[in-house]
Amino acid sequence: MKWRYFRQHVFFTVVRLSAMLIATALGGIIIYVVVNGISVISWDFITLPPTDSMTKGGIMPAILGTFYLTIGAIAVALPLGVVSAIYLTEYAKQGKFIRLIRTGINCLAGVPSVVFGLFGLGFFVVYLHFGSCILSGALTLAALILPTIIGASEEALKAVPQMFREASLALGVSKWQTIYKIILPAALPGILTGSILGVGRAAGETAPIMFTAAAFFTAKLPGSIFDEVMALPYHIYVLATAGTHIEQTRPIQYGTALVLVGLVLGVDLVAILIRGYMRKKKRW
Amino acid sequence: MDGNSIIELKNVNFFYNHLRALSDINMDFEKNRITALIGPSGCGKSTLLRVLNRMNDLIDGTRVEGAVLFEGKNIYDHNVDPVDIRRRIGMVFQKPNPFPKSIFNNVTYAPKLAGMTNKNDLEFLVEESLKQAALWDEVKDILDKSAMTLSGGQQQRLCIARALAMKPDVILMDEPTSALDPISTAKIEDLIDVLKSNYTIIIVTHNMQQAARISSKTGFFYLGKLIEYNATEKIFTNPDVKQTEEYITGRFG
């Protein structure tokens, strides 16, 4: 065999193995969670609150809490992120200042989530007197996912062909109308991709909500955005580390993890379907 | 200069940062005539075209000196809104660039945003514009289909219809047929010839035969300067400047 074919062969094998390794790891985790958690999954598990010091009953309040927190985070971060991205790509004069802002956003994306948790505690919970509640948690999660959404939205806006902007402006359409009517619709599938990642992250994070929103146990369901909530990732965390019956709750921990993974994948799937549908409609 | 000119350029200089792309351009464009701008790549003819509807405003670091008078008023005055200018001076680009919308919505897009909302008026406008652009017969049954499904030549005629729907006075065309096959090109040339009775058309072209075929006046640009501006017939048979003759006969460019 010729040397360069040999090298190519080695290279492709390494690439293939890397890809398989990642797929295997992902598959392994999911299978592990499913195998260990499936036994507790039942209608009661997802519709009833926990009982008997968490060793029995379901996790409905935690599902609901995670749902509220995630929706709240997206509701805040998506408009803010998209508007920021529009400013950065469409309006701002490209220069040093904008580069500085971009660098800042990228740095923010790399900040550990527990730091966001402490920020949320200091700013929303204490300084603004929101207390530990859905609002504080959702705002903290929004801050956490904002860089992801801005980044994805910027990429999506930049990917809209310049000729659409020119075509619209040349017809005597104002810049804002052009953005609103032409550029945003064309960029929407890409923006959605960013939000998908944001939803997944917001739903799965523990550190940002443990000081700002999450409760070990709430006797009743939240009645307003100023109530504390249970949340799936925090529920797993406390059952596995801080409960009094760690061994007895093991199946519930896995069951909760399974629900969380299922929830995130479900949201991803819906968003991917919407994105695929929109992409098919707008081809250029 | 006669009273028939609709756009007049007075000592126009154009800069990309420090690079001077146009030098002391003085010329006037006659109403309801086709004027062709020719010259080698990078000579400034497309830049000049985009000066006329302030499209260069979109590019950071560009600057215009001198005056561009449209019906006697300088379009670069501080109190002039470029949006108003672009409603009256339409543009057709080199590459067909319909929006990823239906054929109908491509035509009604700008008129709607300009305030036209009556459904009957819009339907009438679509038919009128598409007929003017010689596209109506081909698309009248598929108005709801995406413009992206049309052929390149049809897309370009749709872009012309889209520009016509705003009822402009002037239409700027930046090499409108360079991305098209000969048959589509011929259709668009016929169309331009018909349009000149109602519109002033300024066309940039690399195709010398095209300039000779359709325009009544031709300007030859080289290195950012207007070298010669004369009746098309004169430019192509007996130009005043030697450089023009050399370019037209293919000795450079």
What does this structure look like?
The complex is a heterodimer of chains A (284) and B (253). Helix content of chain A is 74%, strand content 1%. Chain A is mostly helical and 284 residues long. In chain B, the strands form two sheets. Chain B has a six-stranded mixed beta sheet, sandwiched between helices. Chain B has a four-stranded antiparallel beta sheet with strand order 2-1-4-5, with helices on one face.
How far from one another are the termini of chain A? 45 Å
Number of domains of chain A: 1
Series of secondary-structure elements of chain B, N-terminal to C-terminal: EEEHEEHEHHHHEHEHEEHH
Largest sheet of chain A: 2 strands, antiparallel
Task: Please report the first level of CATH classification, the CATH class of chain B.
Answer: Alpha Beta
Keywords:
heterodimer; A: 284 residues; mainly alpha; MetI-like fold; two-stranded antiparallel ribbon; 2 strands; 74% helix; B: 253 residues; Rossmann fold; 6-stranded mixed beta sheet; 4-stranded antiparallel beta sheet; 26% strand; globular
List the helices and strands and how they pair.
The complex is a heterodimer of chains A (284) and B (253).
Chain A lengths: L2 H35 L5 H5 L2 E2 L4 E2 L2 H32 L4 H14 L3 H15 L6 H25 L3 H9 L4 H30 L2 H4 L21 H10 L8 H32 L3
Antiparallel strand pairs in A: 1-2
Helix pairs in contact in A: 1-11, 3-6, 3-8, 4-6, 5-6, 6-8, 7-8, 8-11, 10-11
Chain B lengths: L4 E12 L2 E12 L3 E5 L6 H8 L9 E9 L2 E2 L7 H7 E4 L10 H11 L5 H14 L3 H4 L12 H13 L5 E5 L7 H14 L4 E5 L3 H7 L2 E6 L2 E7 H6 L4 H7 L5
Parallel strand pairs in B: 3-8, 3-9, 6-7, 7-8
Antiparallel strand pairs in B: 1-2, 1-4, 4-5, 9-10
Helix pairs in contact in B: 3-4, 3-6, 4-6, 6-7
